[in-house]
Specification:
Blueprint (H helix, E strand, L loop, with lengths): L3 E3 L11 H4 L3 H9 L4 E2 H11 L4 E3 L1 H13 L3 E5 L9 E5 L1 H24 L1
Antiparallel strand pairs: 1-3, 2-5, 4-5
Length: 119
């Protein structure tokens, strides 16, 4: 199962391996929700924009991550204001989610440092 759609911006650009990002999707979502509450499609757009189009989260992957994060107590949701169109489910990070993000980021930085030494 491919977690992310990964595109080359140009054929000489390196490709981001889905295997390297798999398992970090939740952390990327927590990072975004740590900045503000967002609805699902908005999260996908932010990830695509920040990666300069290099990665795009599939809808099924996004909602699987959101369900997992909610079950784990890392996020919660609320209905948005209907004045801006249809009713949207907004997600927000919890205090536990902030702790999870901090731990996951530290683990990623440690792993990256070790891999950098080896490659």
């Amino acid at each position: 199962m491919t977690v992310l759609v990964l595109e080359r911006i140009n054929m000489t650009d390196p490709v981001i391996s889905p295997d390297l990002l798999r398992g970090n999707t939740d952390t990327m979502i927590l990072k975004i929700l740590g900045e503000d509450d967002h609805y699902g499609y908005e999260i996908v757009k932010i990830l695509k924009t920040r990666s300069h189009g290099a990665l795009e989260l599939k809808e099924a992957t996004l909602y699987s991550s959101l369900r997992r994060l909610e079950t784990d107590g890392d996020i919660e949701w609320h209905w948005g204001d209907e004045t801006q169109g249809g009713r949207r489910k907004y997600y927000r990070i919890t205090d536990q989610g902030r702790h999870t993000y901090t731990t996951n980021k530290a683990n990623w930085e440690h792993t990256k440092a070790i891999v950098d030494l080896l490659i």
